[in-house]
Amino acid sequence: MGAIFKKELKAYFLSPIAYIYIGIFLLTCSLFFYLDIFNYQSTDFANMFGSAATILTFIVPILTMRMFAEERKNGTEQLLLTSPRSITSIVLGKFFATACVVLISTILTLMYFAILMFFGQPHLLSSLVAILGFSLLAIAYVSFGMFASSITENQVIAAVISIGVFMLLWFLPSMAPGLNDYSLMYSFYKSFMSGTIALRDLTLLLSFSAIFTIFTIMVIQRRKSVK
Question: How far apart are CA 110 and CA 122, in angstroms?
């Protein structure tokens, strides 16, 4: 897994993909920092993540659409499937490399917290809880984006599938209030944005990531057995 992780992480930063993702993410965070915090002279740093969470729907697929679809399109998937490494290690290596890019961009938002400290006293604990929830939400999106990439060789289709499902999960509470407990966005706003960590919401985000990582392993394993 370590070799795949290093290879994928290196590929992200030797290509424009990671920089495009981080650039778009920080640009939107800067906008929300000004609109939601600086413009209202607020010290609630968590507000920025409440707005930035909606952007994940559209930018996470930038990272995930290539994870397996590119391998199939370029014909390099066969090399992965016939390598001595297990399918599980390959999938986990790609997953953790992509999650690492997401976490790096999230950590960079601490510079806004440092700026805010010059103008007031932001609440550290609630800010850290919001960052945790935001990171878990982003990682959950990565897991599904990876799954979408594993079922098609077209990167655009993988991105469209991911965005479509993310938007569905986003509007799920308004479509059927009884499904609130299955909405990632609802759990994020209800728990982490309020400065608390509810076990149910934490479990939902972690379970979502685990389930679609397992689904991806099953898809790739099946493709290997067929070939």
Answer: 12
**CA nearest to 134, candidates 81, 197, 90:** 197
Q: How far apart are CA 98 and CA 103, in angstroms?
A: 9
**The dihedral of CA 39, 44, 48, 50: what is its sign?**
negative
Q: Where does residue 129 rank: exposed (0-12), middle (13-18), buried (19+ CB within 10 A)?
A: buried
Distance between CA atoms of 148 and 111, rounded to whole angstroms?
Answer: 33
191: confidence class by pLDDT, cuts 50, 70, 90? confident
CB 128 within 8 A of CB 49: no
How many angstroms separate the most distant Cα atoms in the chain? Answer: 61
Residue type, 49: F
Task: Give the predicted TM-score (pTM) of the model.
Answer: 0.92
**Which residue shows structure tokens 């965005």?**
163
Give the integer Cα–Cα distance in Å for 169 and 149: 18
pLDDT in tens, 75-91: 777 777 777 788 899 99
On whether the CB atoms of residues 44 and 37 are closer than 8 A, the answer is yes
Unique residue bearing structure tokens 């934490």: 202
